[in-house]
């Protein structure tokens, strides 16, 4: 065991966990005031549901010995009952399992932004458990598991590069978000009614926490305190900066002004795009990837108006598109100096790596979309996935949680019981 590597991976795990509360604030600020608590709850409950399932069987399905065809692991690691001295490389297996758990949590949480304002809370909790089991755990095995030819079919056998989850996390969550948005349908009044973010300072705070935590996400994926971690750290910083600038430049040229929401969204687009590439490109390549992703995603978010799907908080335009852009651009900017083998087109590697990246993006996106659509439909048919129209108009916070985010009444009872008494809950609660 290397104590330095272990300390870095444990610290990175904590950083990645922080990303989910950061995401909750980022998404929460973009919703309307009457829905912000529900958005926070949807993100936070992913921590609870996925953490328990990860220990029971999730880690085993994703990272234990391949059960055949590179599609799924077996159950030999169910319960995480490891010898405390058991190692994964130079770190304890439990440290690696904790690190990967945080990836599973935030991947599920990312989907929530597409169905803000209108999903039953109970149905969402059920969805998270089923989706993690049937979609995330298998895809993580495909992409992340390396075992000398006996691992997942994308990362170990196909040879596609995904350093920290551009396909397994962002394409996966983005495709699922599109499917679930189609299952639930449009919000009441969309797109005619303006549904602007209710608190931009909270959006920026959430984006800042995401940026901070993302260093654990990407640099921690080196699973060691070494030069590759340092490269991923620098790539993450410069790609994010370039994407933020690129996004607001597009805004300025297209709309005549740059916005704080655009700056925050551009930063997230850059973080998403560099995630698969952080262990494959040099800093100059990272700047190029960030700049391209920022511009592409700035245009991609308007697709929902043309295609008429209601992706509430632009999960598709940022995560599906940004993850795909980052994964594909590895085929152009990958360099042997970082990868230790593969070169992209601009470094003399031809189109081979680009083709492999395209297969990975298409396979993960298609699998996630189809399975998510089926899961969403089954839940909708059995328990109902969407709240009633009148409850949506009134506000899901009061209906589902008997709370409001902002209590401006000067007379406070204090404590949990006081908070419940101050909110008039409708007799009919279906969420």
> How would a textbook summarize the main sheet?
2 strands, antiparallel
**CATH homologous superfamily of the largest domain, by name?**
Ammonium transporter AmtB like domains
What is the structural class? mainly alpha
Helix content: 55-70%
Number of DSSP helical runs = 17
Gap from first CA to last CA: 48 Å
CATH topology of the largest domain: Ammonium transporter fold
Rough outline:
globular
The domain tally reads 2
Computed over alpha carbons, the radius of gyration is 21 Å
Strand content: under 5%
The average pLDDT is: 93
What CATH architecture of the largest domain do you see? Orthogonal Bundle
Low-confidence stretches: 410-414, 416-421
Number of strands: 2
Q: What is the CATH domain class of the largest domain?
A: Mainly Alpha
Topology:
Blueprint: H1 3-30, H2 36-63, E1 87-88, E2 91-92, H3 93-111, H4 121-144, H5 153-158, H6 166-184, H7 200-219, H8 227-255, H9 260-274, H10 283-300, H11 303-307, H12 315-333, H13 336-339, H14 352-382, H15 389-394, H16 396-401, H17 415-421
Antiparallel strand pairs: 1-2
